[in-house]
Amino acid sequence: MTRSAAQAGATTRAEAVLAGLDDEQREAAQAVSGPVCILAGAGTGKTRTITHRIAYGVHTGVYVPEQVLAVTFTARAAGELRARLAALDVGGVQARTFHAAAMRQLRYFAPRVLGGPMPGLVENKLRIVASAAARSRLTTDRTSLRDLASEIEWAKTTLATPEDYPARAKAAGREPPFEAAAVAQVYASYESAKQRDGALDFEDLLLVTAFALEEHRDVAREVRGQYRHFVVDEYQDVNPLQQRLLDAWLGGRADVCVVGDPNQTIYSFTGADPDYLLGFADRYPDSAVVKLERDYRSTPQVVGLANRLIGQAPRRKGLPGLRLLGQRADGPEPRFTEHPDEPAEAAAVAARCRALIDGGMPASEIAVLFRINAQSQVYEAALADVGVPYVLKGGERFFERPEVREAILLLRGAAAGGSEPGLLVPTVRDVLASTGWVEHRPPPGGAARDRWQSLAALVDLAVDLVAENPALDLAGFVGHLAERADAQHAPTVQGVTLASMHAAKGLEWDVVFVVGLVDGVVPISQSLNRPAAVEEERRLLYVAITRAREQLTLSWSLARNPGAKRARPRSRFLTGLAPDSGPTAPAARRSAKKQKVVLEGEAGELFERLRAWRSQAAQSQSVPAYVVFTDATLQAIAETRPANLRELSGLPGIGARKLELYGADVLSTVTG
């Protein structure tokens, strides 16, 4: 092939790479010389854009494939980058996680940098942390060891030394499992033990590689000669340690393309620092900034809700914000549903899942998203009760968690000694107290709090069952737990996904239920005294909402247990989004007229009759319509068609006063 023919072929391939991209994606793909910042909103084709950018750079001759290093955060994401580049006829590009890239380089340079072969890696910190804690005379269990290990990881990723850990932890609002000074002592002992063993942990991989580039000119010259063009995916999640390594790779050069979404910054608790993304244009004043805002994932209705949620956040200093533009055909409006208690909320979600699956929706296209893993138990049970298979993403099934297995063994042993009816709940509390669980006192530390919440869920279950059967004893409760565990251990290949909001990032489904939206859960209680942490909770809800392609339901319950006082406030983030939401109710009601609840057939007709009745009742009393009943309450009435006052009183939003005022009229409207 002649040189001109080869050039023509490369030009054709380069043009083909740009075909099918929208205007903004094409602009980003053609910006092959750094510095470049691509602000990519949810569902805007981020991976497509950066792989086409690399391919365009290769096919136009700007890049030598082997001189491109693309780094991301998961092996799955790196594998997807490689697969897409191969499909674009581009080979040789290095697409790796930060740790994999550092490992490859350090293994090669270890003799020069470390004076010998690559040291062994600490696969699990717990053994060394346990020894370090024992030397510090701390009493620990597996849960507190996990939290100690997490604190050490946070310290190392934020470049905090044992000496400055206490001050840095306090400034960051950390909740360590022990006093900060004790954690610092364990951290120092851990580092000493690791050095004596001649081992490196995963944070050391990045730190030592950065040190090699900073202090060894020959190593820096070789690495920087090899890699001339850098792409960093999910840049909003970069931590100070990763940024230090990236700076060492660059060595003062600016041929770097970063890709991220400031609205999806949800990992600050692990050390991620969004300021690197937000301040990119300040650091590189001549950088090109391209915004991808066309959302190809979700319907305009889902996109609109996500925009309204994030639009309520305070403006952050730095790069401009993103406002998604839905590109799909219209779909149903998001649903907002209120429930009397958590089991009722879970039962309603499970019933809806059952109906969707019976109507032909694949179970794998449905997800239930919650804030904390302990919330999964009530949904696992509710789905099992209606015969809907499920898979738990990013965590163990409730009955497989170590603390739950241990608790059930203790409860079984206590039941063998006999128990009295009417004392189930106190007995369960006493048994769990023997494991160190203290009611109403969630401990600090992520793993410890997860354990506490799992055990609290067992107490809540006991309370629920006693409300149904006051004569239930401990043996009956243990038997019930066994039945639930058996039902939920059935093989599930295709199932509804249960996942925390964090675990859902990067995934998407046709139908999404975002549940448990009450203050103290979303936003989580430990964030409430820190405005920055509350705003991260808002972004977490944004991530959950943008997982939905077509159908989205947001729900909350007024009480945790049946029969309890219905006093829990729904999430503050729903103000101005859900119909009749407090100070913005007039605007919300106007929005509700545009966002009618999606009901069909007889339920839809009844819903409209109830709205007409409500309008008349509100007018006669000179009050806003929502003061009579919210749309969510009317929806529940239309769907359940209560036959008497007792059935009506069990619906959300109907207390004794409203039952007295409106009960008879509502039943008359239901019967026509």
UniProtKB/TrEMBL annotation:
Residues 600-672 form the HRDC domain. The keyword S-adenosyl-L-methionine does not apply. ATP binds at residues 40-47. It catalyses: Couples ATP hydrolysis with the unwinding of duplex DNA by translocating in the 3'-5' direction; ATP + H2O = ADP + phosphate + H(+). Its EC number is 5.6.2.4. InterPro entries: DExx_box_DNA_helicase_dom_sf, DNA_helicase_UvrD-like_C, DNA_helicase_UvrD/REP, HRDC-like_sf, HRDC_dom, HRDC_dom_sf, P-loop_NTPase, UvrD-like_ATP-bd. Residues 300-550 form the UvrD-like helicase C-terminal domain. Residues 19-299 form the UvrD-like helicase ATP-binding domain. Belongs to the helicase family. UvrD subfamily. This is DNA 3'-5' helicase. It comes from Blastococcus jejuensis.
